[in-house]
């Protein structure tokens, strides 16, 4: 017999309550997935999400090891903690997947995004667009007599704020890379 004494009616130490309790609140998570860089791997990862009705908020993919033929897929998705755990477990079962890291729960991470924004304006609006670009540390990467193309990097919130300010000044085109992320520290 076990030396552990349990009070009658106490569910704190019950064998039926060993599973972790999950919340119903949806959270955004950044997942880093290391995979073989081969045809069809991205399609399999995307298929996992679409087949189960999970949404992808941001997706970036690039080869990180040419000799080892490894790529890193960074996925930002939203779901309840239980759904996030299911996603991680299902990703881990895909054969060309080597590692799945939830950067949101594994500690602090650095997340950045790149955006290109074309702003078509003249006169005072053109001057204001340049002033705001300077404040946001955006670079002019193309200029014509009637438009600028700005390059900006930073958090998604920073890019959203810059885009919101550029809209009334003539924002005509926007391209975003999606989030790239790495854990902080060692």
TrEMBL record:
Residues 30-105 form the ACT domain. InterPro entries: Acetalactate_synth_ssu, Acetolactate_synth/TF_NikR_C, Acetolactate_synth_ssu_C, ACT-like_dom_sf, ACT_dom, AHAS_ACT, AHAS_small-like_ACT. It catalyses: 2 pyruvate + H(+) = (2S)-2-acetolactate + CO2. Pathway: Amino-acid biosynthesis; L-isoleucine biosynthesis; L-isoleucine from 2-oxobutanoate: step 1/4; Amino-acid biosynthesis; L-valine biosynthesis; L-valine from pyruvate: step 1/4. One of its GO terms (molecular function) is acetolactate synthase activity. It is an enzyme of class 2 (transferase). Keywords: Amino-acid biosynthesis, Branched-chain amino acid biosynthesis, Transferase. Coiled coil: none annotated. The keyword S-adenosyl-L-methionine does not apply. Its EC number is 2.2.1.6. Gene3D superfamilies: 3.30.70.260, ACT-like. Chain A, domain 2. Dimer of large and small chains. PANTHER family: ACETOLACTATE SYNTHASE SMALL SUBUNIT, ACETOLACTATE SYNTHASE SMALL SUBUNIT 1, CHLOROPLASTIC. Catalyzes the conversion of 2 pyruvate molecules into acetolactate in the first common step of the biosynthetic pathway of the branched-amino acids such as leucine, isoleucine, and valine. Belongs to the acetolactate synthase small subunit family. This is Acetolactate synthase small subunit. It comes from Roseovarius aquimarinus.
């Amino acid at each position: 017999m076990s030396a552990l004494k349990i009070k009658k009616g106490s569910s704190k130490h019950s064998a039926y309550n060993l599973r972790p309790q999950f919340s119903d609140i949806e959270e955004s998570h950044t997942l880093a997935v290391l995979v073989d860089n081969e045809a069809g791997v991205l399609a399999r990862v995307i298929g996992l999400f679409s087949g189960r009705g999970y949404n992808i908020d941001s997706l970036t993919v690039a080869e990180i090891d040419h000799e080892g033929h490894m790529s890193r897929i960074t996925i930002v998705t939203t779901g309840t903690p239980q759904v996030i755990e299911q996603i991680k477990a299902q990703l881990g079962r895909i054969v060309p997947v080597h590692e799945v890291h939830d950067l949101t729960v594994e500690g602090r991470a650095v997340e950045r995004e790149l955006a290109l924004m074309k702003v078509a304006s003249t006169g005072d609006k053109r001057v204001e667009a340049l002033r705001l670009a300077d404040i946001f540390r955006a670079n002019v990467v193309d200029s014509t007599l009637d438009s600028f193309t700005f390059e900006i990097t930073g958090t998604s919130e920073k890019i959203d704020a810059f885009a919101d300010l550029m809209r009334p000044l003539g924002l005509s085109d926007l391209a975003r890379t999606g989030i790239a992320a790495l854990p902080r520290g060692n």
